[in-house]
Automatic annotation (TrEMBL), chain A:
It holds the Pfam family UCH. InterPro entries: Papain-like_cys_pep_sf (IPR038765), Peptidase_C19 (IPR050164), Peptidase_C19_UCH (IPR001394), USP (IPR028889), USP_CS (IPR018200). Keywords: Hydrolase, Lipoprotein, Myristate, Nucleus, Protease, Ubl conjugation pathway. Residues 23-362 form the USP domain. It comes from Oryza punctata. GO terms for molecular function: cysteine-type deubiquitinase activity. This is ubiquitinyl hydrolase 1. Its EC number is 3.4.19.12. Belongs to the peptidase C19 family. The lineage of its organism: Eukaryota, Viridiplantae, Streptophyta, Embryophyta, Tracheophyta. It catalyses: Thiol-dependent hydrolysis of ester, thioester, amide, peptide and isopeptide bonds formed by the C-terminal Gly of ubiquitin (a 76-residue protein attached to proteins as an intracellular targeting signal).
From TrEMBL, chain B:
Residues 71-82 have a biased composition (Low complexity). Keywords: Repeat, WD repeat. PROSITE patterns: WD_REPEATS_2 (PS50082). WD repeats lie at residues 327-361, 362-403. It comes from the Eukaryota. The keyword Transmembrane helix does not apply. Residues 66-86 are annotated as: Disordered. InterPro entries: WD40/YVTN_repeat-like_dom_sf, WD40_repeat_dom_sf, WD40_rpt, WD_repeat_creC_regulators. This is Uncharacterized protein.
């Protein structure tokens, strides 16, 4: 470890970014799903900065009970305040809290990184919203415990309606609009939904652009699946499509690589080759915003099946690409990203596949 | 024995068996393109991959009749015996394959008869016993040059043999890109760019005449690295020496990789090599390959910087630092006046090559650009890249004129079909001037028609409402004056660029594609793994043949009803296992 971290320092040399810390995270038995997500979130700079700011402002009160938010903020602050530039940290408190909080993550089984990210973001929102409520109306003792809906919605990892914009919302929230056009009266009904990430169906030898296009392609509702038109007051055939109304600042794209195969009665991993560019624009926005995003983190699932394997993450920090594999941190090259696109043919062995992609809006930066 | 051979080569092709779901023809308004045959390397030939996965690229070389009395061919007894053994080898594997391809090639092999034009001098168009003639590499011929792992392969385009007739093995790095100069008057006509950043030049004919697996009489260029211990000597050496350079570190290796090579048209002996570090080097094959030559440090990697070698004898003769990040491809205008580059930064740049001046540049919608090419009249450029689009640029207007939408993944190869002529204009207003093709990582080949009148001179066709363009494209926007020289334009907005739809979209391979080439008789497609498919053009006389009456209708030029495949998804997935032709 020590050797590895000093190697990283040597590799970066003079170019080591001022004030930046690169720390590996210890694995407590199949917690790589957690470590890889934490690294991606840590290097999501607007999120990290806002979380650290929150931590600094709320630490003084001191009486708050541990929760996922304080544990995460504490971990981030621990990393950023390290004297050394590189090394290894044990995210013990965070993992303990996670296991206490949610029984799914209690076992030593392999977990799904996307499920964990979903759970974590929704949990943070719950805590932040509760706190802001307490701050705003300290007299009212309504503990609006909202059902944490992580992993409930498969298509959209939706959050609640009319949310108080928390730091999680400011970073990750986007709005999708579901346009449904009744084929009888031609009335278009818009229904908005918020999202923290987009889960995309994937196809062999395709691109993220193409997956996004399919996500927004027009779908006809007919036969068993008709649409209830308010104007016609009856079930009608309709056309439906999903577009992005408000693009998020941080665009998280989840590739649906784990697919339930009915014949097999179990989930199967799709190692399809899905290419993703280092810069991306959303082609499926309502107003053709032409907003440009830049890739800054890739979560990679390593392994052939959904129930075992490993997670690693590739992260871009200060224009350098770094490779995080639990304790290990190594300097790498932009070109390494393309080794995680997947395999062009089903049985050709490459099982290290990009699973969750993190893009940041370039408009936000300038 | 033959069966064993062929199964090995099937495996090397990245699973031809798995290609059973692919159709062996596709329809266009002018008729059917049919899969004529396949070419690939045998997996067993691939020894070693010098770090990193390679992507196969394709060059078609038209070797002219050897001018009488040219003395570059070895005429020693030893090398002529070498020629005999090469012929013997070819005969052995060739027979086996030929038998098999007749078994499986139902009807397709018949099309070969139309392809004897180029191979005429060699007599290689499929007749039994013609292999004898193949060994005579003094004549003219058309060859396919392609790379895979550490080897460069040469196949005879007009022979049905799936296996290459020659493989050249490189012991220290992978060949990644290559170019052939059909106009070379003497000396070397084939250049090869390596993963190490080194470059080799050689004579194609000499390689064909030599039975060995090493390049013969190759010239080695190493950009004048100070520690380079190159042994390359011009034309004089016949044995190839290993170049051992202990500083072949992988990081160095990565950032100096050759990405594209090109001969400068109309400039005998001058060639250009682009690299993944944003540099391109200009070489003169008549100068030494191994000299001490240093160029000044690049101060700002984002700025264009052109430096010339101090010595007039050395190679490279110039270095152009073009952009930050990799230059992914380069292409010269047919007259050699202009050089186009595309790169990681998403920009197309067009330079006046002799004046060393940027004429104009423009950006992809997003992501890197991966390929570029010119129309044969030098008026238009095509680029393709990571935004899944094919961009059409006008040299006159110095800007983008259209976006082709139709690929479901990155566009890896673009080419104009300079052999194609529009169906006879019978006054219907059909005024398609350019045909081009593109291939992508979505395994598809797309063909497009570019109806220029409708973009460039919209007034001539006031209300034609072409189906190939999105309605409501602001034509006035495209009438404005030419931009000043040397300006890099930012990405245009989606709504500002007229869109093209493909004429045909066809899934041609199992693996992602890396390139395409048009020849007089066919379209050649190559996938990243090194399988080449040759799609023969619709037969003009198809109607007169008794072969397949169901094709008659398709053979007619149905010019007005364009086969526009708006949903490629549907075509891609709708291929059924239909009378699969087994190529072995």
């Amino acid at each position: 470890m020590g050797a590895a971290s000093s190697r990283l320092e040597k590799a970066l040399g003079e170019q080591f970014p001022e004030g930046e810390r690169y720390f590996g995270l210890e694995n407590f038995g199949n917690t790589c799903y957690c470590n890889s997500v934490l690294q991606a979130l840590y290097f999501c700079v607007p999120f990290r900065e806002q979380l650290l700011e929150y931590y600094a402002n709320n630490k003084s009160t001191g009486d708050v009970e541990d929760n996922m938010l304080t544990c995460l903020a504490d971990l981030f602050s621990q990393i950023s305040n390290q004297k050394k530039k590189t090394g290894v940290i044990a995210p013990k408190r965070f993992i303990q809290r996670l296991k206490k909080q949610n029984e799914i993550f209690r076992s030593y089984m392999h977990q799904d990184a996307h499920e964990f990210l979903n759970f974590l973001l929704n949990e943070l929102v719950d805590i932040l919203e509760k706190e802001s409520k307490v701050d705003a109306e300290p007299c009212e003792n309504s503990s609006l415990k909202k059902n944490s809906n992580g992993a409930v919605n498969v298509q959209l990892n939706g959050t609640k309606k009319e949310p108080v914009p928390t730091l999680v919302h400011r970073c990750f929230q986007g709005i999708l609009t579901n346009e449904t056009r009744c084929l009888r009266c031609e009335t278009v009904t818009d229904r908005d939904e918020t999202f923290f990430d987009l889960s995309l169906d994937i196809e062999q030898n395709s691109s993220i652009t193409s997956c996004l296009k399919n996500f927004s392609s027009t779908e006809t509702l007919n036969a068993e699946d008709k649409f209830f038109c308010d104007k016609c007051c009856s079930l009608q055939e309709a056309q439906k499509r999903m577009k992005i109304k408000k693009p998020p600042n941080i665009l998280v794209i989840h590739l649906k690589r784990f697919k339930y195969i009915e014949q097999l009665g179990r989930y199967k991993k799709l190692s399809y080759r899905v290419v993703f560019p280092l810069e991306l624009k959303l082609i499926n926005t309502v107003d053709n915003s032409d907003l440009e995003y830049s890739l800054f983190a890739v979560l990679v699932h390593v392994g052939s099946g959904p129930n075992h394997g490993h997670y690693i993450s590739l992260v871009k920090s200060h224009n350098h690409w770094l490779f995080f594999d639990d304790e290990n941190v190594e300097m790498t090259d932009e070109s390494m990203v393309q080794t995680f696109f997947g395999s062009a043919q089903e049985f050709s062995g490459n099982t290290d596949n990009g699973y969750i992609l993190f893009y940041e809006s370039l408009a936000e930066k300038s | 024995m033959a069966a064993a051979n062929s199964s090995a080569s099937a495996a090397g092709a990245g699973g031809s068996a798995a290609a059973a779901g692919l159709k062996t023809y596709f329809k266009t308004p002018e008729g059917r393109y049919k899969l004529q045959y396949e070419k690939t390397h045998s997996a067993a030939v691939l020894h070693y991959n010098h770090g990193g996965k390679t992507v196969s690229q394709l060059t078609v070389a038209y070797l002219k009749e050897k001018p009488a009395g040219q003395g570059s061919t070895p005429s020693t007894p030893s090398s002529s015996s070498g020629m005999r053994s090469a012929a013997a080898r070819l005969l052995g594997s060739g027979n086996g394959n030929r038998t098999l391809s007749f078994v499986g090639g139902n009807g397709v092999s018949r099309a070969v008869s139309g392809s004897s034009r180029i191979g005429g001098g060699l007599g290689t168009s499929g007749g039994i016993g013609s292999s004898q003639a193949v060994a005579n590499y003094d004549g003219k011929g058309t060859y396919i040059i392609f790379n895979a792992a550490d080897t460069l392969f040469i196949s005879d385009l007009n022979s049905q043999d799936k296996d290459p007739i020659k493989s050249i093995h490189f012991s220290n790095s992978n060949p990644l890109c290559h170019a052939f100069d059909p106009e070379a008057k003497e000396g070397h006509d084939l250049i090869i760019g390596m993963g190490s950043g080194d470059v080799y030049s050689m004579s194609l004919r000499q390689q064909l005449q030599d039975p060995g697996r090493k390049p013969v009489a190759a010239q080695h260029y190493n950009k004048g690295d100070k520690d380079g211990t190159s042994t390359g000597r011009h034309i004089l050496i016949f044995t190839f020496h290993l170049v051992i350079r202990p500083f072949f570190l992988s990081s160095w290796h990565k950032c100096n990789r050759c990405t594209s090579v090109a001969w400068v048209p109309e400039r005998e002996g001058i060639f250009v090599v682009s690299h993944s570090d944003g540099n391109l080097y200009v070489y003169d094959k008549c100068k030494d390959g191994n000299t001490e030559c240093t160029f000044p440090a690049i101060k700002d990697p984002a700025q264009l910087m052109i430096s010339h070698a101090k010595s007039s004898k050395s190679n490279p003769i110039a270095r152009w630092h073009v952009c930050q990040g990799s230059i992914n491809a380069i292409s010269f205008s047919p007259d050699g006046a202009y050089l186009a580059t595309v790169g990681r930064d998403g920009y197309l740049r067009v330079f006046d090559f002799s004046k060393e001046q940027l004429i104009f540049g423009g950006k992809s919608y997003y992501g890197a650009l991966l390929c570029c090419t010119w129309s044969s009249d030098g008026k238009y450029l095509l680029t393709g890249g990571e935004d899944d689009l094919v961009q059409v640029w006008s040299m006159d207007d110095r800007k983008i004129v259209a976006w082709g939408e139709g690929h479901n993944s990155w566009v890896s190869g673009v080419s104009f079909d300079s052999y194609w002529s529009p169906p006879n204009s019978d006054g219907t207003g059909e005024n398609t001037v350019y045909r081009f093709g593109s291939v992508g990582q979505d395994t598809q080949l797309l063909l497009w028609d570019l109806a220029l009148d409708e973009i460039a001179v919209p007034l001539r066709h006031p209300s034609s409402g072409s189906p190939t363009f999105s309605s409501g494209s602001p034509s006035a926007h495209w009438d404005n004056a030419c931009l000043p020289t040397g300006v890099l334009q930012p990405s245009p907005r989606m709504r500002d660029v007229p869109k093209l739809s493909p004429l045909v979209a066809h899934r041609v391979h199992v693996d992602p594609l890396s390139g395409l080439v048009f020849t007089n008789e066919s379209i050649l497609t190559i996938c990243r793994e090194g399988l080449i498919k040759i799609w023969v053009r619709p037969d003009q006389n198809e109607n007169n043949q008794q072969s397949n009456s169901s094709e008659l209708v398709l053979g007619n030029p149905v010019s007005k009803d364009r086969v526009i495949t708006s949903s490629n998804k549907a075509t891609g997935s709708s291929f059924k296992q239909s009378s699969a032709v087994v190529f072995t």
